[in-house]
Design goal:
Order of helices and strands: EHEHEHEHEHEHHHHH
Distance between the termini: 40 Å
Largest sheet: 6 strands, parallel
Radius of gyration: 19 Å
Shape: elongated
Length: about 210
Amino acid sequence: MTTVCILEDHPMMREFLSQQVSAHDRDIDIVYSGASITEAATQVRNQPADCVILDLDLGDGSDLRANLREMVATGSPVLIVSAAASPRLIQDAITGGAQGYVSKQCEPEEFDRAFSAVLEGRTYVSPDLAARLAVPEVGDVKLSPQERRALTLYASGMKLESVARTMGVQVGTAKEYIRRVREKYTAAGDPLPSKVDLYRKAHEEGLL
């Protein structure tokens, strides 16, 4: 019997993952399927899992790296299946104890390879994500204090006018700070074209 824990906040994605692991092995026991780190960790401590499938961003504002630490601490192998995939985050996840890392956009066959590797005690990072590790480290992007503050405020949901008022600058200046932020991350291989992308990056960097 292979025991699996699935930590994912989107019901359709949970169903897809359940189908994937069941297709891999008919003798599967899904000991937990949901979006609560606390409930999953408690369950897995009581009944260790052969694989914990974890989406780092559970949509509840929790810290991505803290979620990983919580599940790694249970002692069960962790396979990350996540849309968050910056080079820094991938590297932090593997060094932080994750045994595998694949993108939510991966093909079913790719997931199966990763799942098999984790069950066999091997580390697996899908080739497309491994290639990102060769990109200059996104964490090395140097933002000025004003650029960092503008990113934090704007990514939190504020409009540029509100960001400018909060920072005590003109709207054009606030806009320029955000433009510089985008420019620096693009140069580091992690473009942030939308406000959603800026939110993701601020969240990954621990600014939100």
